[in-house]
Amino acid sequence: MKYLDEYRDASIARALAEEIRKRCTRIWVLMEICGGQTHTLIRYGLDELFGPNVQLVHGPGCPVCVTPLETIDRAIALARRPEVILVSYGDMLRVPGSHSDLLRVKSEGGDVRLAYSPLAALDLARAMPARRVVFLGIGFETTAPAHALAVLQAAREGLANFSLLSSHVLVPPAIRLLLASPQNRVQGFIAPGHVCTVMGYAQYAALAREFRVPIVVGGFEPVDLLEAILMLVKQLEEGRAEAENQYTRSVSYAGNRAAQEAVERVFEPCDQKWRGLGLIPQSGLRLRAEFAAFDALRIFPLAEVRPEESPECISALVLQGLRKPTDCPAFAVRCTPENPLGAPMVSSEGACAAYYQYRRLVSVKEAP
């Protein structure tokens, strides 16, 4: 196929769904990792095309959702400092911290600015040398190259008033954690296409061999995801466990070496806490010591953070594929995009936001 419309063709989608149903001899539980894939599945109702043959659960592939609460609280503390301009992606402004969020801090007078790229933060640092510009750099392997290049550019120019509050996470260690869990019931994974565009899928091949679980790199359009599901079902029915690539128009086995080299130059692996999953060994990226001058955690003295999660939010179970958003009693009642209890309700890639936008079901007895 050559054009985007073909990846949204209803007749092709129905034919793929029918083939998936015919091939299934038992129930298979599959997980898509990326939040963008989750939104496509829910928006087009793809998860309802297979009857009981295929159960789709949602993974921890929303970068905003897994950013640890401590990072949000630290960003809020920095945004309240009069000398700081806190620059962030738009999704982060509404993510609840322990007691507030960045949008509320902005309304109270904090200098919080929305950006679509770390380059905007560099521009601010050049234009306002008397202020300290902190970019809240979150995300998976997809955003890490741009953040690495921003740090390298700041180092070249000697922009001493620019720094990065880094909270990057890596997908393969999270998959490993899920597969090793005694609660795991996932039998196949749709790997995140954007991440694999940067990193390739060699690490997923290693996971498939180690855990004997099929993994298929998938795209983001309806036909992409249905093709990926069919590839997983074929493997499961044939007793195979391999890493395959459905998203061939964007992903290669080796990935983007130039982007990988930039990340390796600036960052090093570290143990990282994930919101909802806890501490995962070697699942994060931190700035190397030679770039300490651009590390906001080393520059600013921040008090010890003791985060407080909402006791009512079940997003941790949603991120592990153990519950659906509609299983939460607070869903669409006490938790909405305007008043979120957890990050998955406010992020544009969050599973709870997807269900709220496309499949909101609130019974009379649940209404306040």
Describe the protein in words:
Helix 7 packs across helix 12. This protein has 368 residues and is of the alpha/beta class. Helix content is 39%, strand content 19%. The C terminus is likely disordered. A hairpin with a 3-residue loop joins strand 10 and strand 11. It is built from 16 helices and 11 strands. The protein starts with 9 loop residues before the first helix and ends in a 10-residue tail after the last helix. The protein folds into 3 domains: 134 residues, HypD, alpha/beta domain 1 (Rossmann fold, 3-Layer(aba) Sandwich); 150 residues, HypD, alpha/beta domain 2 (Rossmann fold, 3-Layer(aba) Sandwich), CATH 3.40.50.11740; 52 residues, no CATH class. The protein has a 6-stranded mixed beta sheet with strand order 4-3-5-6-11-10, with helices on both faces.
Query: Any idea what the shape is?
Result: globular
- Number of alpha- plus pi-helical segments: 16
How many β strands by DSSP? 11
Amount of helix: 25-40%
> Looking across the biggest beta sheet, what order are the strands in?
4-3-5-6-11-10
Instruction: Briefly note the structural class of the backbone.
Output: alpha/beta
Largest sheet, strands/sense/barrel: 6 strands, mixed
Number of domains: 3
* Uncertain spans: 362-368
Quaternary structure classification: single chain
Report the CATH topology name of the largest domain: Rossmann fold
Order of helices and strands: HEHEHHEHEHEHEHEHHEHEHEEHHHH
Cα separation of the termini: 49 Å
